[in-house]
Amino acid sequence: MTDRPAYWFPAKRYGYGWGFPRVWQGWVVMAIFAILVLAGAFMLLPGYGSFVFVAYSSGLCLGLVAVCWAKGERPAWRWGRK
Length: 82
Known about the structure:
The chain has 82 residues and is mainly alpha-helical. The chain has a domain at 38-71. Helices cover 57% and strands 5% of the residues. The chain is built from 2 helices and 2 strands. The chain has helices at 24-48, 50-71, and strands spanning 14-15, 78-79. A two-stranded antiparallel ribbon has the order 1-2. It is elongated and about 50 Å long.
């Protein structure tokens, strides 16, 4: 058993940010995010227009970044493995 914490979202090998989820909880978060974006597209775009949908999607993206920040490795600019 290792003492490393089990991150849901590993840091990217190159660049800044997070990569694909490492555990099933991360995949559930990504699936919920995708379902909410699609639901917003079908429900908000026809009735309220693009401005409301962009605001809704921006809120979802901020929520996803918050989850990645809380459950992922700390992001830093990376140039690959050392």
